[in-house]
Amino acid sequence: MNLWRYIKDRLPAYLGEAAALGASLLFLMAFRVRTDAAVCAVCLPLAAFAAREVWDYARRRRFYRRLENSLKELDQKYLLGETLPRAGFYEGEILREALWEAGKSMADQTARSRRRADGFREFIEMWVHQVKIPLSALRLMAHNDPKGGRYMAQTARVEEDVERVLYYARGGSAEKDFVIRETSLSRVFSAAALRHRDEILALDVELTAKNLDVTVMTDGKWLEFIVSQLLSNSLKYVSPSRPRRVLAEARAMPDRVEMRLWDNGLGIPAEDLPRIFDKSFTGENGRSGAPSTGMGLYIVKTLMDRLGHGVTARSVRGEYTEITLSFGASDMVRPGQSPMSGKVSKL
Prior knowledge:
- This protein is an alpha+beta fold and 347 residues long.
- Helices cover 58% and strands 15% of the residues.
- It has 2 domains: 3-107, no CATH class; 181-346, Histidine kinase-like ATPase, C-terminal domain (Heat Shock Protein 90).
- A hairpin with a 3-residue loop joins strand 6 (310-316) and strand 7.
- The protein is elongated, with a radius of gyration of 35 Å.
């Protein structure tokens, strides 16, 4: 609370007090009251007024300083009214009650919005589990049909999109579903590659895994989904003019482990690269080539952040794209038990 601004705000009261005391002094002098007695009669109310102003400024300053400090320290600003002590003056109490009512209204609104969001998420999860049943049946029917090969790829794409919906719906409260344990990067990549087996064979992609005999502390199910999304992007944007290659490689360093997924596909334009993890950003490739929602990499980034890991991207248009997943030193890097130890494996 600024002293000079307080004085400026109170200036009309001070001028009124000065005018009243001046009039009182003239009135006393008119009745021929002794000068010293008249001055004393004026100075006493003036001293009382000044003391009251100092006391009023001090209590207001104390209250508003607490308000400012609480506002700076609170992450959820709408709880400000609940943290303030009693003001000790009428205007302060009005302000405190107004803040409390506003905070309560905001908390109620937040709770209602959270309940609606939770209800919608539960519905989406239920719908995804229900729709997986006919999708699995369609996949089985297509697999048993000699002419069903052309339907398999489309069924797989629908299943992938449905799964993306599920993980996006869970992304806001992903921590509740996390099971952090030692996870083999080799096993995660093999499971992700198995999801895309038919597409890999159809596109004649050379899929290579190198030095994935590394174990990190993470949630294997969520990491498998992340790797599957990255592998799906590599297959979606393959180059039509040269042999198609996808490489997965891990590197253990003193402070972290990195899992690199590299492909020699279309690559990402330099102007699009800084925005590929933004929500709904499709970029030039998504607009001119394979249809894209712009949600895949956004979900990857969101889930990696939730898991406490990192993800970065490098690319040169027409040459390659490289996505790197980083696991920190606290993720307990250990050698795994994969039979691929130190070797290159083509899947």
